[in-house]
Amino acid sequence: MSIETPTLGTDRLLLRAFSRTDIPALIPLIGAREVAATTLRIPHPYSANHAEFLFARLEGDNEIRWAITLAPDGTLIGGLGLRLERDHNRGELGYWIGVPYWGNGYATEAARAVVQYGFATLNLQRIYASHFSNNPASGALLRKIGMQHEGSFRKHILKWGQYLDLETYALLKAERQR
User: Would residue 47 count as lying in a domain?
Assistant: First the structure.
């Protein structure tokens, strides 16, 4: 069963389904080396073929992906996903923001909205996320949305020929309701 991407709004953002019309704006944002360096699943360089593969995968039933756009004018600034593990009633949160939009709290705002949706609408029991230890800004974001650090996986990921430590965070539904 496929999940349709719901539109979610915040004070400054509109989270909506990606569209093929986003590709011209998507490629330079997601294709920045700085973005790929902080993520596990974004290749570099990023091409139109990668974008087409992304759209083919949007049709699945285990992941919801949102385009993060500025509410006033619809400018694409990033992306966010919730990969569902239905057998365990949990979801993995992932996000990226284009470099020109870093430092404005957009990822935090978008992540809060998706976490709320995951608990309230999808009735998930647990939402978790990970980041490379060399990306402390991502850890700060996860703490801001209420996640707790659960542990480190040393030299867990091989990225561009270098082994990186992975920091894992999670939030439980019962903790969110406090």
Answer: yes
Domain count, the chain: 1
Does 40 reside within a domain?
yes
CATH for 106? 3.40.630.30
Domain that holds residue 33: 8-128
pLDDT of the residue at 55: 66
pTM: 0.92
Tens digits of residue pLDDT in 125-150: 999 999 999 999 999 999 999 999 99
**C-beta of residue 157 within 8 angstroms of C-beta of residue 164:** yes
Q: Could you tell me if residue 162 is inside a domain?
A: no
Q: CA 140 → CA 37, 97, 100, 129, 132, distances in Å? A: 17, 15, 19, 12, 12
| Beta carbons of 103 and 34 less than 8 angstroms apart | no
Model pLDDT, residue 172: 97
pLDDT less than 50: residues of the chain: 1
Q: Between helices 48-57 and 23-30, what is the axis angle to 10°?
A: 110
In a domain, 69, yes or no: yes
Ramachandran area for residue 123 (φ above 0: left; ψ -120 to 50: alpha; else beta) = left
